[in-house]
Amino acid sequence: MFECILVILLIIAIYFYWQYLLLFIAIFTILLVIRSIYHIKAKKEQELIRQKEYEELQEKLWQKEKEHQKRIDNCKKQFIEISEKMHKIEAKINNVLYKKRPLYDMPDIVFSTIRKNSSYKDISNFIVLDVETTGLHARNDNIIEISAVKFIDGEATEYMSTLINPRKEIPVEATLINNITNEMVKDSPIISNVVDSFSSFIKGYNIVGYNLEFDLNFLFVNNLDLFSEKRKFYDLLPICRKHISKDYIYNYKLNTVCEYYNIFRDDAHRSTSDALATGLLFVDIANEIKDTIYDV
User: On the CB side of 17, how many CA atoms lie within 13 Å of its CA?
Assistant: First the structure.
C-alpha cells in the first residue's frame, strides 16, 4: 500500500511537475530508507520477543522436567523403602529332583477380574509370582530367577526369592533383558531344590501376576503346587487393558503402566522388583475400580 501511494505521487509529479522529478525521487528514496529502517527495527523487536518467549518456554520445560525427575526420585525412594521393609523368607533347599511335567497336563485356568463387589480378602491378601527365564517356551527353556511377594491388607510384608541354576547356558538375549549372567547363577540351587519351599510359601493365597499365564506355565512344568487347593488367579495385563484407555498410555507393558501410576522400579526385569511393582499396581487399580478396596 505504501509503495502504491509513492508510485502514484511519482507519476503525478512526472506529469505535472517534471522539473521537480529529482526532488520527488529523493523524497521517495528517503521514505523507502525510513520504511526499511522501521521494518528492520520491527523485525529485531519481534526476534527479541520470540527469543524471550523461547527462553521462557525452555525455562518452563526445564522446571517441568526437574519436577518430573523429582517425582520419579521420590517414587523410587518410596519403592526402595517398601522393598526394605519387606521381610525376606529364605527358600529351604532340599535334594529332591523333579522331572519336568508336560505342559498339556496343566489344568485350564479361568482368570478372575476385579469388580466393585470383589471381596476385601480376595484382593487385599495375595501373592505375586514372577519368574525370569532363559527364553519364552516353558517346555524347552528354564527358570533363572523366581520371586514371590506376599501382600497382607494391601501392603507388601514378606517375600521369597532366589536365583536358579538353569543347568544350561543363559542366552545373551535373555541376559540383555534381565541382566542375569551365567556367573551369577553358577552356585545357585536348581529349581527342583526350592520348588517345595515356594509351594509352602504360596499356600492359602490367591495368585497375582502380569501376563500371569507365562509365569504359571513355567512354574507348573517345574512342579510348583498351584492347583491342589482352590484359589483365584488374577492376570493384571487384561485387567489393565480393560481398565486403562489407550488414550492415556501407548502400550500395556508393565513398565509403561507402572509409570502411569507413578510406580518407578529400582531394578526392572528382576523378578522381585517386578513382583513388588505388580502387587502395588494391583492395589492401585483395585482402589480405582472399587473406589477403595478397604471399605469392608
Answer: 10
For the stretch 3-35, pLDDT in tens is 666 666 666 666 665 556 666 667 767 777 787
User: How many Cβ atoms from other residues are within 10 Å of residue 227's Cβ?
Assistant: 13
Q: If we measure between CA atoms, which residue out of 291, 281, 175 comes closest to residue 235?
A: 281
Q: Report how far apart, in Å, the C-alpha atoms of 274 and of each of 57, 110, 147, 202, 265 are.
A: 37, 23, 9, 17, 8
Q: Which of 4, 9, 2, 1 is nearest to 26 (CA)?
A: 9
Distance, in Å, from the CA atom of 97 to the CA atom of 78, rounded to the nearest integer, reads 40
Residue type, 43: K
3-state secondary structure of 133: strand
Q: Which fold has domain 88-290?
A: Nucleotidyltransferase; domain 5 (3.30.420)
Q: How far from 238 is each of 15, 108, 187, 254, 262, CA to CA, in Å?
A: 86, 17, 37, 12, 20
Q: Measured at the alpha carbon of residue 179, what is the angle toward residues 175 and 183, in degrees to the nearest 5?
A: 80
What is the residue extent of each domain of the chain?
Answer: 2-62, 88-290
d(CA 296, CA 293): 8
Amino acid 293: pLDDT: 44
- For the record, the C-alpha cell of 292 comes out as 477403595
* Identity of residue 264: F
Among 226, 228, 206, smallest CA distance to 128 is for 206
Condensed to tens digits (0 to 9), the pLDDT of residues 179-234 reads 899 999 999 999 999 999 999 999 999 999 999 999 999 999 999 999 999 999 99
For 221-254, write each residue's pLDDT tens digit: 999 999 999 999 999 999 999 999 888 898 999 9
- Cell (9 digits) for 245: 484407555
Query: What is the C-alpha to C-alpha distance for residues 128 and 234, in angstroms, rounded to an integer?
Result: 9
- In this prediction the pTM is 0.77
Q: What are the respective helix, strand and coil percentages of the chain, to the nearest 5?
A: 55, 10, 35
